[in-house]
Specification:
Helix content: 25-40%
CATH class of one domain: Alpha Beta
Largest sheet: 5 strands, mixed
CATH superfamily of one domain: DNA polymerase, Y-family, little finger domain
Order of helices and strands: EHEEHHEHEEHEHEHHHHHEHEEHEH
CATH architecture of one domain: 2-Layer Sandwich
Number of helices: 14
Radius of gyration: 24 Å
Strand order of the largest sheet: 5-6-1-7-8
Strand content: 15-25%
Length: about 425
């Protein structure tokens, strides 16, 4: 099996304490909006959706890459000490009461033997990009919705004639993910996104559940109301005051009462409970106005070589992010946060629209030279960059008349990094 991130093992040799701690792909949508629901839509039960959810994604990746972690309680999200929260936990840790969002201090009280690891964003993002390419071999990109880094919706209405074919497609997707990255996931198959997402939870980990229209009263309605997409603890508590405890209670509740209590969201909750979610695949359509990357260090730094390397890492990540979206920038904003929590920042106009690592790095270093230099008494804690004035990359670069600049195939280099890892090849950057 090809494991795209096997080069990250072992952790102790990779300098993980200075790596990125947060993943940058965040959920695009909470739950279907009222305008996406069409109550009188015909043939809504003839659609087929797959909801794909990776099992304890971050923790599973770490256990896959380090055999010493397998079978042990592992959490991802913190680095050293007792600071931070649990972004995700392995099933061994969940069995001991560890939950996502719990503070590490609280988690260690419940499970003293918990192994807490930092979140290495670029690593997980590379794995996901690899898996997305695999998903596109089953359905085109316009039928795939990235809900979060480890959750996806697939509209397979045009690729399956019935639930048997939909389930078979789901099994093939699971097998491909196992072959490509040696990871497991759970799938829910249903005739709308809400029920598909709900079905995913029926058999975890490594499960596949099909939820048909005729099973609404027997399999969905008896579930607690919190199982509905978008209903958390606080909303469930408010529904409990109205004596709405199950999905069935919500489905049969008065629409007027729900609207009075929750506004238009009350109507949305009721329709989702009744299986009347007619929303489709959501795609972000608004053009990007800016892109940024900020990295807070585990240990503060002040040495010039350390500072330079950190600015370089932030540059490389931000430029790769621009290229992944086929964008170039005309303006750069650079910021440092020091150990005393004070900030220093400035911005500059770039010489030309670019997503070239060397151009962005040179501009960042020129800004840095005019800011207070970190020292042992005032070390640097965080570095960040934001690029704006973004335009589509036409790859029509202006050659300098008297210069001898070498134009590098950055897009090809990005593809190599996605396949073999961030450290497989690097471009020499010069601030002079």
């Amino acid at each position: 099996m090809g494991i795209s991130s096997s080069f990250f093992v072992p952790r102790s040799e990779q300098g993980y304490n200075s790596m990125y701690k947060r993943i940058r792909i965040m959920p695009l949508y909470s739950f279907p909006h009222y305008k996406d629901l069409t109550p009188h839509a015909e043939h809504r039960e003839r659609k087929f959706f797959i909801h794909l959810d990776f099992d304890a994604f971050y923790a599973q990746v770490e256990q896959r890459d380090n055999p010493n972690l397998r079978g042990k309680p592992v959490s991802v999200g913190s680095t050293t000490g007792m600071k931070g929260i649990v972004m995700t936990a392995s099933y061994e840790a969940r069995a001991k009461g560890i939950e996502t969002g719990m503070s590490l201090w609280e988690a260690k009280k419940l499970c003293p033997e918990l192994i807490s690891l930092p979140c290495y964003g670029p690593k997980y993002e590379m794995i996901i990009q690899n898996l997305l390419r695999s998903l596109r071999s089953f359905v085109p990109d316009e039928f795939i919705e990235t809900y979060s880094i480890d959750e996806y919706f697939l509209d397979i209405t045009h690729f399956a004639r019935n639930f048997e074919e939909a389930a078979e497609l789901g099994r093939r997707v699971k097998q491909r993910i196992l072959e490509v990255e040696n990871l497991t996931c759970s799938l829910g198959v249903s005739y709308n996104k809400t029920y598909a997402k709900m079905a995913t939870k029926f058999q975890k980990p490594d499960g596949l559940t099909v939820l048909r229209p005729g099973e609404r009263e027997t399999r969905v309605y008896p579930l607690p109301v919190k199982k509905i997409w978008g209903i958390g603890t606080r909303i469930a508590r408010r529904l409990g005051v109205l004596n709405i405890l199950t999905v069935g209670d919500l489905a049969n509740a008065s629409e007027g009462m729900l609207k009075k209590e929750f506004g238009v969201n009350g109507i949305v909750f009721r329709r989702l409970a009744r299986g009347e979610d007619t929303s489709g695949i959501f795609k972000k359509e608004r053009p990007e106005k800016c892109l940024n990357h900020h990295h807070t260090l585990t240990n503060n730094i002040h040495k010039p070589s350390e500072v330079r390397n950190e600015i370089r890492r932030v540059t490389e990540y931000l430029c790769r992010k621009m290229r992944s979206k086929k964008l170039v920038a005309g303006h750069l904003y650079f910021v440092i946060r020091y150990g005393n929590l004070r900030y220093a920042a400035d911005d500059t106009r770039l010489r030309a629209y670019t997503n070239d690592d060397r151009e962005i790095f040179t501009a960042a270093m020129k800004i840095y030279e005019n800011l207070p230099e970190p020292n042992p008494e005032m070390p640097a804690r965080m570095f960040g960059m934001t690029v704006f004035d973004l335009h589509q990359d036409t790859k029509d670069y202006n050659l300098e008349l008297f210069g001898s600049k070498v134009h590098l195939p950055f897009y090809a280099l990005d593809s190599i990094k996605q396949k073999y890892g961030e450290g497989i090849i690097r471009v020499g950057l010069d601030s002079n």
